[in-house]
Amino acid sequence: MTLRRNLGIISLFSIIYLAIATVTRTVLLAMVPKGSGLTVPLVAQAYAAGLLFDVASLAYLLIPAALYLILAPRRLVEHRKHAWLVRAAFLVIIAALIFGAVAEYFFFEEFATRFNFIAVDYLIYTGEVIGNIRESYPLVPIVGAILAVALILTRLLQGVIDRAAATTFSGRRRRLGAALLALPLAALLFVNISATAISANSYANELAGNGLYGLFAAFRNNELDFTRFYATRDDRRVMARLRDMVKERNNHFIASPPRMTRQITGEGREKRLNVIVVVEESLSAEFLGAWGDTRGLSPNIDRLARESLVFSHLYASGTRTIRGLEALTLSIPPLPGTSIVKRPDNGGFRSWGEIMKEKGYDTRYIYAGYGYFDNMNAFFSANGFDIVDRNSFAQDEITFANIWGVCDEDLFRKTIRESRASFAAGRPFFSMVMTTSNHRPFTYPAGTIDIPPKTGRDGGVKYADHAIGRFLAEARKEPWFKDTVFVFVADHCASSAGKTDLPVKKYEIPLLVYAPHHVKPGRVDRMMAQIDVAPTVLGLLNMSYTTDFLGHDILKADNRPERAFISTYQKLGYIEGDRLLILSPQKGVSLAHFDRRSGATEPLPMDERLLQEALAWYQGANYIYKNRLNRIP
């Protein structure tokens, strides 16, 4: 009873925190698009589950207060200025809570999720993130408004704060502090982030969460142990099945199990052509006229599609740039947790860059931004690439830049200059070029297109398309153009938000291979995964090489079932035909039929054969990675 009377300032803070959390949840609910499938009972369930996570996150937030109650010396808490210290702390805390709620609003607007592993990744690169926010939103007015609200609340509640603090600090504060420390322990033992999965509707699951709780849960689980969290089968059987699944007609194994090392034999005379792989930031297929869009945002790509070999049914591995780069470079299905690009000990793989380097190519990773971001420089330099990033640009080579990097036109001009250098030295070149302009804040040189900068995604797409058109127009003037293969592919889609955890339609990305002197225009409608891009391009060059790739040359896939891989950092999706099998933490598995046009899904009973295949790919990829079986000996 005494402890309850002493709660004072703790009760006040708890009420305010829970009120802000509830208002945040309600605002996010209002942001959910129409047709999301939310019902009144489902929303009520989300609010009930959300309260649990709000209380759990509150328990963790009370740890500093508990420690202060226990450790603060008596002379401090009894000092006449202690009340001012409490008011100042209250002001800072309220401002921080409101700032967190506003930040979550913008995060939900961009990603349609509460704070998760993406937020964890971004916290590491505060310069880029703050710069992006500053260039995308009126930061000074927003921060000013937050501080004003916090000041007004603190002033209005000053009397309540003083009385609540006096109640708390005049009682048995150390016993109260010790009791409060039991709350986070209870939250740790009895509350798990998996409890947000209240339904098959991803919006309801997001509303059921708490942003702060999700942030720390993602930080704790940024790399998930597959064998601990996911359904598994016997490793030997899994690897034997995978070995059978990666076989193709023009390769043979040159290493004993469980290694997948194979010798690929080119079918025809090898073409030592230059290769430029342009990885377009966030370029969803749904924005392009060649994939059915009618807004006219991509006239250059649409024209290019008529002159290229177009792969119309490609799925991105994940939702982050580094997941796409991992798939394109290493040809491995996505692993749970963060991308291999971000992990320690991420070098020495038999990557696309290493394969081309062994062939005598100059190999470059050309990036519009600073390559320390997302660990790109460390990864690419350790896997066969020379680095050309923003640090490599002379001042007069930059006509426009934002926080993410130089504009696409500047990047492509740099790519042409690097290509000239290799050509002048008599060496073939392989460049992987990563753009950044099609990214919030969507700023680019004014006057280049008919959509003003900083007005949204449509402008970003149209400028990216404009830059591609300019790039090819300039490249056609070069003596090396006729012997160069241009590959255009996206890293991931603009958004992966949807009613389901893995909305298949939100993973469709374009792939065009353009080499008018060597590759006939055409259209390949066969489903493929992002891990199939490198083997397919190498196949078009008739290259013979040693590989540990798990992807297929899609043009030599014969009668194999069409399959693809999509993922978040926890959910691993395996697509075969019109069925999607999802592997989840806590050994979860589910199967659904999906409609490619509408994106609608319908649950299906589990198919053991399909599950065995999905595990062969995912568990097998994890086994290979963990045991370093795709590294160069």
From TrEMBL:
<feature type="binding site">
    <location>
        <position position="491"/>
    </location>
    <ligand>
        <name>Mn(2+)</name>
    </ligand>
</feature>
<dbReference type="GO" id="GO:0005886">
    <property type="term" value="C:plasma membrane"/>
</dbReference>
<dbReference type="Pfam" id="PF00884">
    <property type="entry name" value="Sulfatase"/>
</dbReference>
<keyword id="KW-1133">Transmembrane helix</keyword>
<keyword id="KW-1003">Cell membrane</keyword>
<feature type="active site">
    <location>
        <position position="321"/>
    </location>
</feature>
<feature type="transmembrane region" description="Helical">
    <location>
        <begin position="84"/>
        <end position="108"/>
    </location>
</feature>
<keyword id="KW-0812">Transmembrane</keyword>
<protein>
    <submittedName>
        <fullName>Sulfatase</fullName>
    </submittedName>
</protein>
<feature type="binding site">
    <location>
        <position position="492"/>
    </location>
    <ligand>
        <name>Mn(2+)</name>
    </ligand>
</feature>
<feature type="binding site">
    <location>
        <position position="439"/>
    </location>
    <ligand>
        <name>substrate</name>
    </ligand>
</feature>
<keyword id="KW-0479">Metal-binding</keyword>
<feature type="transmembrane region" description="Helical">
    <location>
        <begin position="139"/>
        <end position="157"/>
    </location>
</feature>
<feature type="binding site">
    <location>
        <position position="321"/>
    </location>
    <ligand>
        <name>Mn(2+)</name>
    </ligand>
</feature>
<feature type="domain" description="Sulfatase N-terminal">
    <location>
        <begin position="274"/>
        <end position="542"/>
    </location>
</feature>
<dbReference type="GO" id="GO:0046872">
    <property type="term" value="F:metal ion binding"/>
</dbReference>
<dbReference type="InterPro" id="IPR050448">
    <property type="entry name" value="OpgB/LTA_synthase_biosynth"/>
</dbReference>
<feature type="binding site">
    <location>
        <position position="281"/>
    </location>
    <ligand>
        <name>Mn(2+)</name>
    </ligand>
</feature>
<dbReference type="InterPro" id="IPR012160">
    <property type="entry name" value="LtaS-like"/>
</dbReference>
<keyword id="KW-0464">Manganese</keyword>
<feature type="transmembrane region" description="Helical">
    <location>
        <begin position="7"/>
        <end position="32"/>
    </location>
</feature>
<dbReference type="InterPro" id="IPR017850">
    <property type="entry name" value="Alkaline_phosphatase_core_sf"/>
</dbReference>
<keyword id="KW-0472">Membrane</keyword>
<feature type="transmembrane region" description="Helical">
    <location>
        <begin position="178"/>
        <end position="198"/>
    </location>
</feature>
<dbReference type="InterPro" id="IPR000917">
    <property type="entry name" value="Sulfatase_N"/>
</dbReference>
<feature type="transmembrane region" description="Helical">
    <location>
        <begin position="44"/>
        <end position="72"/>
    </location>
</feature>
